[in-house]
Each structure stands twice: as structure tokens, then as C-alpha cells.
TrEMBL record:
Residues 1-35 are annotated as: Disordered. It holds the Pfam family APH. Residues 106-268 form the Aminoglycoside phosphotransferase domain. Keywords: Kinase, Transferase. CDD domains: APH_ChoK_like. This is Kinase-like protein. The lineage of its organism: Eukaryota, Fungi, Dikarya, Ascomycota, Pezizomycotina. One of its GO terms (molecular function) is kinase activity. Residues 1-27 have a biased composition (Low complexity). It comes from the Eukaryota. It comes from Aspergillus saccharolyticus JOP 1030-1.
């Protein structure tokens, strides 16, 4: 059989002509069946949890794991209502677990209970219990003046327990170094580990590294004379901003964020409550807290002048006032010398 005969013996399927009253299949798809056009949401994943709006739309999952605080390369996650996970990046030396356990063992200060502490790819992950209540910065506008006074008094009373914990040098728990960009910096590195200073002179030399290079030597000597004695080195929280005070029903429920705690000059806790970058509410809180803290002679003005002499602008505020006083003092001394001669 030739190819031509084969082709003749295999006829093609007859093609049905569409009936005008019966729609074709393609017409049925577009006219009879509903078309669902869901708007597509962003598929860009969250940098923290990798979930995306589009993935969330496609399921009914409602996460109870949420970031509620972030700053720099660190963040704090709420794991439900009872646990907290702190994630600190490699720029932060973290002694949170060590310090919190130390305070819990040696005082009655309400602090979080550490559940686990783990290092992963340069990050420190600390799992802890959540202190009941809300941060003081959230509660502040809702509190009465008497409640604010009470919380400040309660906090100061707890801090007295820390003053009994002392050392012969500046250091952290377990002989770890402390980190404070005010106390010590090295080659422009503000988060350098602080040496174990043991004296007034060593502490001053560390502080002097931060002074504006334009501050003259006579002003440095005068400021050094203002510095109170550093001993005894006392265990200090080091960051009592209103964000780290937990309250409920007008009462203190806990003090959190112990990562920067350690043994510091005896006046360090007081002076660290003088300056704030957290706004007027925190300034009010710190003024109130200082009211109930033990006073250290000369500490207030020493720190105010030191702080402003570290800044770039020396032509205004306390920095200018201090430098002018130095000039006037030098002139007075010169006149006295001339009269004596």
C-alpha cells in the first residue's frame, strides 16, 4: 500500500460547526464560570521573621512572636505573654544572663529569670521570663504624681541593695570587662572593653580620652579636681532609663536590661541619671529618681561639665560657662601674684 493510499484510508475527524445557540467551550469558560481575581500582596519577606503579606494571606496563622523593641543591631521579641527573647548583634558584648542571675542571687530586686543563653553567628540570644506590667515610658502619661514618686522611691530603695556589692576595681561579674563609651574608648572605638581601673587617676585618664581635643590643659586640670573619689567600686545597673523600669497599677514590678551592669565608680549610678537622650519624660523620671538616691558631693556638676566638654560645641551652655570660669580663675590668680610681688 502506497503512502497516498494510506492517507486516503485514514479520513480526518469531521469538524463540527458551532451552533449559534450553543456556546463553544471557550465561550463557556469566560461567560458561565466565575473568575476569581485575588489581589496579590507583597511577597517580600520580613527581614526579621521571613514571613510576607502574601504568605500571611494564604493561611490563618496569627503569630504570637513579635518584635516590640529595637535599637541598632539588637531587638527584643515577645514570645507570647510570658517569655522574652533578646537578640543582640555582634557589636554588643552581652552579660545580661550573667548579671541578671547575679542580682537575683544577691538581692531581692525583681529581675527576669534567665531560661537559656546561646550564641549563634555572632549574635547572643537570651531567653527569659517577662516581668509583668508595662515599661514606665508607656505608663508615664497615665500615672499620677504620687504614683511617680512612689515608683521612684521603690526603685531607689532597691538600688541601695546594689551598693553593698563592691569590688576593688572596675569590672564585670566573673572578672569580665565592662563596656561603657563614657568611661573608656580606644582608637575611636566607643564599645571597647574597659581596663580594670583601680584608682582615681586611672579612671580619670579613661574619662579624659573622650574630652574634646580643644579643651585646654588648664580646664582639664580643673575638671579633674572636680571628680569625686571613685572608691568603693559599686555594682551598678548603668541604664535606668524609663524604658527599663516595669510598672503595674502604680507600683514597680521589676528592673530589666542588665546587659551593661558591673562594678563602677561609687557615683556612677547617680551621674548616669543626669543626662538623657530619651526625651522630657525620661528627664523628669531621672530627676525624680535622683531625689531618692544617695547624694555624692560634687558629682552632679562634675558630670554636667564633663558631658558638655566632650561635645563638639564648646561655645555654648555649660561647656562655655566652665571654660570662662577657668579663664577668670587664671586672671584672678595672676592679679594675686602681682599684688604679692
Amino acid at each position: 500500500m502506497t503512502p497516498a493510499e494510506t492517507a486516503t484510508e485514514t479520513p480526518a475527524e469531521p469538524t463540527a460547526k458551532p451552533n449559534a445557540e450553543s456556546p463553544t467551550e471557550s465561550a463557556t469558560e469566560t461567560e458561565d464560570e466565575p473568575v476569581f481575581n485575588f489581589p496579590r500582596l507583597s511577597t517580600v519577606p520580613c527581614s526579621a521573621c521571613t514571613f510576607s503579606p502574601e504568605r500571611q494571606r494564604c493561611c490563618s496563622y496569627d503569630s504570637h512572636v513579635k518584635i516590640f523593641y529595637e535599637a541598632g543591631d539588637r531587638a527584643t521579641w515577645a514570645l507570647g505573654s510570658d517569655w522574652i527573647l533578646k537578640d543582640l548583634g555582634p557589636r554588643h558584648a552581652n552579660a545580661e544572663a550573667l548579671n541578671a542571675c547575679f542580682v537575683k542571687e544577691n538581692t531581692t530586686i525583681p529581675v527576669p529569670t534567665i531560661i537559656a543563653d546561646h550564641k549563634d553567628s555572632g549574635h547572643t540570644l537570651t531567653l527569659m521570663t517577662r516581668i509583668p506590667g508595662e515599661p514606665l515610658n508607656v505608663a508615664w502619661p497615665k500615672l499620677t504624681d504620687s504614683e511617680k514618686e512612689k515608683i521612684a522611691e521603690q526603685t531607689a530603695e532597691y538600688l541601695l541593695q546594689l551598693r553593698a556589692l563592691q569590688s576593688d576595681c572596675i569590672k564585670g561579674v566573673g572578672d569580665h570587662p565592662t563596656y561603657s563609651h563614657w568611661l573608656y574608648e580606644e582608637d575611636g572605638q566607643a564599645n571597647a572593653p574597659c581596663p580594670f581601673f583601680t584608682s582615681d587617676e586611672e579612671t580619670w585618664n579613661g574619662l579624659a580620652r573622650r574630652l574634646n581635643p580643644a579643651v585646654p590643659e588648664k580646664a582639664r586640670r580643673r575638671l579633674r579636681s572636680y571628680m569625686p573619689p571613685v572608691e568603693p567600686f559599686t555594682f551598678t545597673h548603668n541604664d535606668l532609663t524609663h524604658v527599663n523600669i516595669m510598672v503595674k497599677d502604680g507600683e514597680l514590678t521589676g528592673i530589666i536590661d542588665w546587659e551593661g551592669a558591673g562594678y563602677y565608680p561609687v557615683w556612677w549610678q547617680y551621674t548616669s541619671n543626669i543626662i538623657t537622650l530619651e526625651g522630657e519624660d525620661d528627664a523628669q523620671w531621672k530627676r525624680l529618681l535622683r531625689k531618692y538616691m544617695p547624694k555624692i558631693d560634687g558629682a552632679y556638676w562634675f558630670w554636667v561639665y564633663y558631658y558638655f566638654l566632650c561635645r563638639k560645641d564648646l561655645e555654648s551652655g555649660p561647656a562655655k560657662k566652665f571654660l570662662d570660669q577657668c579663664d577668670e580663675s587664671e586672671d584672678s590668680e595672676g592679679e594675686a601674684t602681682e599684688r604679692e610681688d
